[in-house]
Amino acid sequence: MAKQLIYGEQARYYDLIYSFKDFAEDARKIISLISKYRNIGGNDLLEIACGTGEHLKYLNKKYNCLGIDLNQGMLNVAKNKVKGVKFERANMINFDLNKEFDIITCLFSSIGYVKTKDNLRKTINNFAKHLKKGGLVLIEPWFTKKSYRSGFPHITTYQDDNIKIARCSVSEVKGDVSILDMHYLVAEKNKKVKYFIDKHELGMFDKDDILEIMRNEGFKVRYIKKGLMKDRGLFIGIKK
């Protein structure tokens, strides 16, 4: 797996570059979906690939939350920001918490980082192992190969009086993997301008493949087109 500085030693910039995203509204939608689709009571929620804890900052007001992430830099930010939530470093493919949860979420297309169908199968199997019978899982996918638009330039910026950030990329596709080289320029007050590149590689899984894997791993599953982000949808599974 390629190393991403924005998830590690440069994680303090993550919340700034994603300040456009309305995590509070996401949390409101998640709570509504949980209420609509859940089959059992219980408030133990596991967020997988929790990042800096922005979703958990809001979900923690309603559920007993635990967050896991592969990247210690992100967890350090989350621990300082979100009080009352336990965070652990773990890989979604093979983590073992020795506990079952009522609700599992894996959002912001983080599932794409497993890259291959074999890893996806292992990951979904691991989700099932950590979910109570009748428990609910919400998975926000990455783009499919058919819907992905490679070769187009993208830029995201953030600025205030003390810091300016620009992130540029032009994506490409190799096989079933999308590759994004993210070029960052960071200018901070009284500091030299910083430049770094992050490579992100995400597997593009067909909707039917994800549905089949989830069913084979013991879920009653549906896909809803209108999820949290445009053109990505959401998989909703109930453990049989």
Q: Return the CATH class of the largest domain.
A: Alpha Beta
- Average pLDDT: 95
The count of DSSP E runs of length 2 or more, i.e. the number of strands, is 12
Task: Give start-end ranges of low-pLDDT stretches.
Answer: none
**CATH fold type of the largest domain:** Rossmann fold
From the coordinates shown, what is the CATH architecture of the largest domain? 3-Layer(aba) Sandwich
Major sheet: size, sense and barrel closure? 7 strands, mixed
- Dominant shape: globular
What proportion strand?
Answer: 25-35%
Give the C-alpha Rg.
18 Å
Strand order of the largest sheet: 3-2-1-4-5-12-11
What is the SS-derived class? alpha/beta
Can you characterise this structure?
- This protein is of the alpha/beta class.
- The protein folds into two domains: 5-144 and 205-239, Vaccinia Virus protein VP39 (Rossmann fold, 3-Layer(aba) Sandwich); 153-203, CAC2371-like domains (S-adenosyl-L-methionine-dependent methyltransferases, Single Sheet), CATH 2.20.130.
- It is 24% helix and 34% strand.
- It has helices at residues 14-17, 23-37, 54-59, 72-81, 117-129, 207-216; strands at 44-48, 64-69, 86-89, 101-106, 131-139, 153-159, 163-170, 172-174, 177-188, 194-203, 219-224, 234-239.
- The strands form two sheets. A seven-stranded mixed beta sheet has the order 3-2-1-4-5-12-11, sandwiched between helices.
- It is globular, with a radius of gyration of 18 Å.
- It starts with 13 loop residues before the first helix and ends with a strand.
